[in-house]
Design goal:
A 7-stranded mixed sheet has the order 2-10-9-8-7-3-4, with helices on both faces. The protein has a 4-stranded antiparallel sheet with strand order 11-12-15-14. A two-stranded parallel sheet has the order 1-13. The chain folds into 2 domains: about 5-35 and about 285-385, Aspartate Aminotransferase, domain 1; about 40-280, Type I PLP-dependent aspartate aminotransferase-like (Major domain) (Aspartate Aminotransferase, domain 2, 3-Layer(aba) Sandwich). About 50% of the residues are buried. It has 14 helices and 15 strands. The longest helix is centred in the last third of the chain and has 25 residues, at about 285-305. Helix 5 (about 120-125) links the parallel strand 3 (about 110-115) and strand 4 (about 130-135). By secondary structure, it is α/β, with parallel strands linked by helices. It binds 4'-deoxy-4'-aminopyridoxal-5'-phosphate and glutamine. Glutamine binds near residues 13, 30, 31 and 170.
Length: about 375
């Protein structure tokens, strides 16, 4: 293994899912739903398999899916895209993030991102020979997560190539506010950097969130410098399909595609038409899915509070974080390793997503993208902790 990849062990998701299987625990660690997505989408995939859509799709994705992605982006975010040259289909958001970084960063370039960060970010930045400049999110007075403006300003410098922003944010459930996005956009313009936005949870912002989701690409001067990334996995409960995409100005999409063609070339031939169908579903699908997840968030949040955790409010995503200190915990890794034995539930320590480990030492993440009955059972088990 090359030296620069040696610090990266097995991902925490793999470790914790294996622990859940070994101990027969309820897995609220890895974020994947335990029910299938919309029936229309599943039927379209079955049809495509039977009707012979089983060979390589075109490099940027099948036209029907690129058109559906462009229409979706216009419909929900008022971002016009040319499906002919401003949209590319990828093997999940993960590949899109990797290809974006690999196509934009020279060795030694710096990437500003917020920690805790999604685990593939650090690995992709390292693979590119680039350097991460994390800005720490911390619980602030509102009870939500915030960051220090001076720390963000200081993270930008002459080597900054891009900002990698995830909002709604995994694992904190934070939805970046318009004023925070405005500051990020100002800094991108001032330092003439790119932005790569990971918006895989774009449809999972709850009705009581402090602010709605706003794509950074929609802010003044940002469209021409931003690659916007999303994925079918979260919105349509098909995380195993690995169908994602990136949209942006032609020069950035074509740079990303140049790299992407040598990572996977193409993927998911028979699933692409099905995702096109899903993206075209009526608004009631998207709001219904959000409402369902919101009810589960409320249910799990109540269970965690009852069990004695200090729960951080989650405005979006599949996740809620909790402070273990009221339960006498000090180290999230230790706490999560012992949790299955103590009560038969698996969670994920978020400190592994920080460079500044002390900042996240006492925080752990629970996924609520699970059936009501599963959350109910988990809440009952967690109640035994107190
Ligand atoms: N980004 C974030 C913030 C995520 O939470 C996830 C999935 N958990 C991904 C990217 C990966 O998405 P995909 O499975 O489409 O590669
Ligand atoms: N994105 C999922 C999560 O945050 C996990 C994906 C993975 O296992 N790499 O839980």
């Amino acid at each position: 293994l090359v030296e620069r990849m040696r610090p990266f062990g097995t991902t925490i998701f793999t470790e914790m899912s294996a622990l859940a299987t070994r101990t027969g625990s309820i897995n609220l660690g890895q974020g994947f739903p335990d029910t299938d997505g919309p029936a229309e989408m599943l039927a379209a995939a079955a049809r495509a398999l039977q009707e012979g859509a089983n060979q390589y799709p075109p490099l940027p994705g099948i036209p029907a899916l690129r058109e559906a992605i462009a229409e979706h982006e216009q419909r929900f975010w008022a971002l016009p895209r040319d499906p002919g040259c401003e949209v590319v289909v990828t093997a999940g958001a993960t590949e899109a993030v990797a290809a974006a970084i690999l196509s934009l960063c020279e060795p030694g370039d710096e990437v500003v991102t917020f920690e805790p960060y999604y685990d593939s970010y650090a690995a992709s930045i390292t693979l590119a020979g680039a350097v991460r400049r994390p800005v720490t999110l911390r619980p602030v007075a509102s009870g939500r997560y915030g960051f220090d403006e001076a720390e963000l300003r200081a993270a930008f410098g002459p080597r900054t190539r891009l900002v990698l922003l995830n909002s709604p944010h995994n694992p904190t459930g934070k939805v970046f506010t318009r004023s925070e996005l405005g500051l990020i956009a100002d800094l991108c313009r001032q330092h003439d950097t790119y932005a790569v936005t990971d918006e895989v949870y774009e449809h999972l912002v709850f009705t009581d969130a402090a602010e709605p989701h706003v794509p950074l690409a929609g802010l003044p001067g940002m469209r021409e410098r931003t690659l916007r990334i999303s994925s079918a996995g979260k919105t349509f409960s098909c995380t195993g399909w690995k169908v994602g995409w990136a949209t942006g100005p032609e020069r950035l999409v074509s740079a990303l595609t140049r790299v992407k063609q040598f990572l996977t070339f193409v993927n998911a031939g028979p699933l692409q038409p099905a995702v096109a169908v899903a993206l075209g579903l009526g608004d009631d699908y998207f709001t219904g899915f959000r409402d369902e997840l919101q009810a589960r968030r409320d249910h799990l949040t109540a269970g965690l509070a009852e069990a004695g955790f200090a729960v951080q409010p989650s405005d979006g995503t599949y996740f809620v974080t909790a402070d273990i200190r009221p339960l006498g915990g000090t180290d999230g890794i230790e706490f999560c390793r012992e949790l299955p034995e103590r009560c038969g539930v698996v969670a994920v320590p978020t400190q592994v997503f920080y460079d500044d480990r002390a900042a996240g030492r006492h925080l752990i993440r629970f996924a609520f993208c699970k059936r009501e009955s599963v959350i109910d059972e988990a809440a009952q088990r967690l109640a035994k902790l107190g």
